[in-house]
Each structure stands twice: as C-alpha cells, then as structure tokens.
Amino acid sequence: MCACDGYAHFMLKEICEQPEAFRQTLQGRIEEGKVIFKELNWTKELVGQWNKIYIVACGTAYHSGLIGKPMLEEFLGIPVMVEIASEFQCRDPLVDKKTLAVFVSQSGETSDTLGALRVAKNKGATILSIINAEGSTIAREADYNIYLGAGPEIAVASTKAYTTMQIMQYLLSIYLAQVKGTIPAQKSEDILTALMQLPEKAQQIIDRKEAYTAIPEIKNAEDVFFVGRLMDYFIALEGALKLKETSYIHAEGWGAGEIKHGTLAIVTEETPVIAIAIQKIIYEKTLNLVKELVAKGIFVLAVVEEDDTEMEKWASKVFYIPQIENIVSPVLAVIPLQLMAYYTAVARGNNVDQPRNLTKAVIGE
Ligand code: BG6
Q1: Residue 7 Cα to ligand 1 middle (Å)
Q2: Which tens digit of pLDDT belongs to each residue from 60-88?
Q3: CATH 3.90.1010.10 for the 215-347 domain, yes or no
Q4: What is the mean pLDDT of residues 129-155?
Q5: To test ligand 1's pocket by mutation, which of 10, 110, 338 has the most ligand atoms within 8 angstroms of CB?
Q6: Residue 91 phi/psi, 5° resolution?
Q7: How far is the C-alpha of 255 from the C-alpha of 80, rounded, in Å?
Q8: Atom of ligand 1 nearest to the CA of 60
Q9: Domain coordinates of the chain in residue numbers?
Q10: CATH number at 10-202
Q11: What number is the average pLDDT over the span 294-322?
C-alpha cells in the first residue's frame, strides 16, 4: 500500500480527488454571472486585437486543448489552432503580435512546451500559460498565468490536471467572450451553472467507481480502439492514451466516421471497441457504428448518459455518466475511462503510478 492517504495508488487517489479539485479550480472564478480572472484583467481593446489563438501543449495537456478549441471559436469567432508543442517548436508557425498563444502544462517544466513558448514569444505573441505547478519555468517565462489549483499530481498518467485544464479553458472562453461582448447572457449563465454542477456529478461517478472496473475483454486484449465524434472523439483520444500509458495495451482513438476510411480493416473480434456517445447532435451516427460493429461480433463498450435507454440494446457493455449540459459533459465522460484504465493496469500487475518508459515531465530535450 503506497503513502497515498489510504488509496492503493496515487492515480486512484488523484482520480478520486477530482470533485474537490473542480471546486478549487472554480473557486472565486464566477461572480454574478461573470467569469473573473483578476490575474488577467484584460480590456475589450486588448482582447479585440487578437485575430487568432494557438493552444500548444504535450500529451494529455494537448488533449485538453482540443476540448477548449470549439468553445473559444464559437464564442470569439476567431480561428483557434491546437498544436503539439514538439512539432510547433520545430516549424515556423503563423504567429505575430495579433496572436494569443496559450501554453497548457501540468508541471510547467516540459521542454517541448517551453521551447514552443519561446518560439511564439520571439514572434511577438501574447503568452498565456495554464499551469498546475506554481513558480515553474513556463510560468516564469509567460506574460500571464492561470493556475489550475488542482493540487499536486504525482502519478505519471495525468487525470485531475486534465479535467481541471478543461474546466479552466471553458472559463477562459466565457471570460474572453464576456470581455469582448460576444456571448449571450443566457448562454454563459447556462454553461456556468453546469460547470458549478461538475463537482457533485463527478462525485456520483466516483461513488460507484467499482462499476468501471477491469473488463476481461479489455484486460486480455492486445489492441483496443476508442471512437467518438466531435468532443466525444477528443475523449476517445484521451481514453486511449490513459489505457496505453498505464496498461501497456495498444490503444488508438479514432473519429467514429474517419475509422471507416482504413483503420476498420484491423478492427476484428480480437479488438474491443470503446464508443463514446455523449454529444447529442452526433449520437445517432455513433449508435449506427456500434450496431455495425456488434453485428460483426466485435465487443463494444459504450459510454453514454444515464437517461440513455437505447445503447444497452446494442452494446456489449455500457458505462453511464450523470446527465449534464452537453457542452461540459467531456469533463465527466473521461472519468470512467480513467478508472477503467487504472483497474485494468492493476489487474495486469503494472506499476500504475510509474509506468515504464514514461516520466511526469519530459525535461532537457
Ligand atoms: C508526459 C506525462 O511526460 O508529459 C503526461 O507523462 C503529460 O502525463 C505530458 O500529459 C505533458 O506534461 P505537462 O506537465 O506539460 O502537462
């Protein structure tokens, strides 16, 4: 038993700390329907000068940027590019004084992200960091910093930092749109109300964490595919990364539409599929793919909202999450996948907190 407050591992402890981490991330951020960032204090004039936004990061932090992009674009009406830091720093990105460059990092020390930051800074961009570790190198070199407040994250596989990074990007989107005056009051109120429900709804998932335990079909598999569309696709990418980095099972995340254009050739009865079907506007499309896969004798685990009565008629197994405003549901949808990855890794006898070949922050490259 490790020194992690009675939990078997830091990863499980950090998964279970998410409800409280959400409260810390949200604390003091919403006043009378307005999002508050005292550490930014940006004016309409300053925000108005940015004609594009880059979100740059590595690993799980990069996946959080994919979730931040749609809302930023919807509410600000400017292009948002999400980039892998190790690639961004090696090319000549279209960055200038009219660019807001956002660097996301749990540790604040990842060399690729730091290198990318310096590239953007040299090109005159405004540098904002979204960080968990206060006083880190990235925080010192950025123009502005927003701290997650998620508390220390020890396990190499990032969990609570990922979900709080999502929440912080939702808050940032609404903050920028409120400063710019481009979001209807009702829309921001609906999303802020939903964000405040996240701690309690996450606790409901945590309270029944054993329901998301290791599944033989997944635990004994050599290859697993995760699928989804839109935000569900981004959760599929993170779900696959969690399973890969902890259980050492080869896992890939794919768009539920795109998988048909090649990769489906290697999806067989030997390769279970995990389908995330939360986003309402594309639910039917993902359900149709599930029907197709099951008809081929493929084991399908689906993740859906608790009021769903259709998916259980088709999928081999179903994970349910509490219902919430669709746009913030990715924060909840990933938690069963974090738990499943954790329990699968434990069942396979792996060093869950310190997986082989990985480190909490890749420094000095
Ligand atoms: C890897 C970690 O080394 O770096 C991942 O194993 C993490 O969990 C990635 O997502 C990026 O780290 P950071 O600290 O910049 O968010």
Answers
A1: 22
A2: 999 999 999 999 999 999 999 999 999 99
A3: no
A4: 97
A5: 110
A6: -125, -175
A7: 20
A8: 10
A9: 10-202, 215-347
A10: 3.40.50.10490
A11: 97
